[in-house]
């Protein structure tokens, strides 16, 4: 999947930060830093999430930090806005052919909320291993189910919206009885020397109108299918139905508090992986 709307991604960044910080706070003790390390982050997007979650954890004497993403729009934005000493932003498909200069280059590779959106997780894990130096490590977080995938399946099968291509937005193991088991098999196939797998629920709770706007912006930001619809009226109708499907889907829970105010919980079952080469 390639996301196309960096400004919306920035506006909704609180959601990604909340989910990422939850996983890091529980499992950052697994990361072992050394001197003068090379670091890669896959699925970097605009870089805003990294600045507030990963960058504060970096040792001051790191050698280089490379942020990578598959989206041209995100890369262009990050190149202009992401400011960090000894850093670079590059285009990289973690499931594609890895540049020769990236093989066995990195001491650490991070990927937050990204593996569930790649087309070939098994190839991604293998590529991550190939990019690590001997003894290097990777720290990855990803979801069993995303909040948007069920809506894309429904719209894909809709008589009205099925003519648009939704397949890219449906994770590879959506139809599996246990996506996390499938990811674990892919990890085993990559043959890391040591792998630690943890599961943890993370929640973003929207209590105010502003919180709900943040969630809506996020769901807009991760829907590139809308770009296929040239007619504005039809596109607005499609997005209205899409947003309704997401908020009524199985990953998003809406309820009322004791005062009758609407509360929305976005709860994901995360798989947290720490693996060494």
From TrEMBL:
For this chain, one GO molecular function annotation is: S-adenosylmethionine-dependent methyltransferase activity
Residue span, Methyltransferase type domain? 57-139
A Pfam family annotated for this UniProt entry: Methyltransf_11
The protein's name = Methyltransferase type 11 domain-containing protein
UniProt source species? Phyllotreta striolata
């Amino acid at each position: 999947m390639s996301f196309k709307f960096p400004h919306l991604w920035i506006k909704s960044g609180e959601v990604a930060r909340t989910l990422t910080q939850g996983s890091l706070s529980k499992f950052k003790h697994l990361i072992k830093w050394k001197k003068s390390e090379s670091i890669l982050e896959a699925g970097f997007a605009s870089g805003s999430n990294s600045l507030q979650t990963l960058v504060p954890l970096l040792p001051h004497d790191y050698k280089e930090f490379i942020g990578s993403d598959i989206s041209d729009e995100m890369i262009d934005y990050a190149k202009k806005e992401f400011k960090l000493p000894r850093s670079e932003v590059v285009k990289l498909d973690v499931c594609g052919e890895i540049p020769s200069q990236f093989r066995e280059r990195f001491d650490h590779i991070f990927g937050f909320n990204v593996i569930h959106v790649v087309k070939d997780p098994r190839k991604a894990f293998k590529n991550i291993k190939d990019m690590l130096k001997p003894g290097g490590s990777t720290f990855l977080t990803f979801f069993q189910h995303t909040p948007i995938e069920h809506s894309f399946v429904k719209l894909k099968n809709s008589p009205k919206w099925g003519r648009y291509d939704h397949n890219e937005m449906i994770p590879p193991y959506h139809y599996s009885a246990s996506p996390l088991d499938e990811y674990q098999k892919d990890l085993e196939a990559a043959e890391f020397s040591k792998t630690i797998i943890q599961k943890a629920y993370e929640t973003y709770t929207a209590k105010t109108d502003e919180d709900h706007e943040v969630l809506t912006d996020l769901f807009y930001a991760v829907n590139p299918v809308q770009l296929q619809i040239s007619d504005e009226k039809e596109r607005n109708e499609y997005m209205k139905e899409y947003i309704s499907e997401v908020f009524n889907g199985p990953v998003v829970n809406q309820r009322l508090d004791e005062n009758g105010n609407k509360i929305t919980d976005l709860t994901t079952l995360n798989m947290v992986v720490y693996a060494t080469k």
